[in-house]
Amino acid sequence: MAEIRFASRAASIGKRPPPIVALDAIKLGGGNAFPDLLPDVSAEAADVATLFRTEALQYGPLYGLPELRQEIVRFLTEDGVTANVDNILILNGAKQALDLLLRTLVDKGDAVVVSRPTYLSALSIIRNHEASIIEIDSDEGGMKVDELEAKLRRLRAEGGKLPKLLFEVPDFHNPTGITLSEERRRTLVRLAEEFDFFILEDDPYRRLRFSGEAVAPIKSFDTNGRVIGAGTFSKILAPGIRVGWANGDPAIIGRMAALKSEGGCCPLTQRIVLDLLRSGRIAHHIAELTPVMKRHRDAMTDAFRLHLPEARFRAPDGGYFLWVELPDGVDANAVTLEAERDGVIVFPGQLSFASAPPVNFIRLAFSYCGPDQIERGVRKLCAVVRRQQTDVSAQPGQAEALSLAGRHYD
Ligand code: PMP
Hints:
This protein has helices at 8-11, 42-51, 53-56, 66-77, 94-105, 120-128, 145-158, 182-195, 250-258, 267-278, 281-307, 332-341, 371-390; strands at 26-27, 88-91, 111-116, 132-139, 142-143, 165-168, 198-202, 227-232, 244-247, 321-325, 344-345, 347-348, 361-365. By secondary structure, it is an alpha/beta fold. It folds into two domains: 21-38 and 284-390, Aspartate Aminotransferase, domain 1 (Alpha-Beta Complex); 42-279, Aspartate Aminotransferase, domain 2, CATH 3.40.640.10. The strands form three sheets. An eight-stranded mixed sheet has the order 2-9-8-7-6-3-4-5, with helices on both faces. A three-stranded antiparallel sheet has the order 10-13-12, with helices on one face. 4'-deoxy-4'-aminopyridoxal-5'-phosphate binds at residues 31, 93-95, 119, 169, 174, 202, 204, 232, 234, 239, 244, 410.
């Protein structure tokens, strides 16, 4: 085969196909939906296919179905966000909001701020745009906005390149599960104003709260079009339906729409989502799903407490993920590879860092497997950790480099 002269952004990624995961593997890696609670949408799908056949099977409008955009506006008011139809662009998921916003605002080499750690797929998407990444450390309250402010002041004083965009997951952060305080949210908006950057507020988990009080969205503190909200039905309905949205200033939304390469999103699935929103089934689904996800979380945290009491984690108040710090000296890459051989899939924490990853973190999703499988999976995983701890030849950080870069994991 001819030597392929790849574009630089493609040269080092996707060299191997995704690993084939055993059918009976315990999947605690990606944030998939719990299969038992995937909604039955057959009636809505049949209605759409018959009553809206000509709409559903044509190209859709570039910005999305007007009625769905209107319904999203209503949905957002429940969170204290004011918008109108002109602010809403329907997308095939929240990740597309990040991709299009990068196309809209960020040239090659421009800087984008993320928390450290951050959502691993966001890192892949940002890298695809050849942006440079500024990581800001997190503590138990999430992104350290004081550190961000100090960094921005330093950059300005030194004539360095200020960022154009900041990406943040403020509610039940992926991977840490932390919710950013109102004070930090307000600080982000103030800094965006002062240092002239935009904020992408990626908020797929907001409605999946197990305990504690909701904090107002960053977007609700934005008076000047600095914040673009990204939402999705992936976590509150089904990821396979591929419907999400962006909420932003029409000047930005218009450019994001113009930079879409596939035209409008699928009208069939949009119409199904619209029906489910209007009938109240999505609200009902969220009410049913939330306590189930809490039970999954409890099964996972209980299993770690029992099988690996030295593991450090914070039980999240919502969302899909548990972020676990393994005992010092344990190599999470090696654990991940060996656990995979034992039929348990987890993600090594290194995927959530843009640079210099620490070696002993793992990310687990409690969304997909039921409590019994979670207990079994964590027990097996902890046994792998124990073996690592007693393996005198194990060299932290020396495990085979994982060939995961550049893929999209959820
Ligand atoms: N953003 C974050 C932070 C996520 O964790 C996920 C799913 N894991 C998504 C977005 C989902 O994106 P999409 O709507 O494209 O499915």
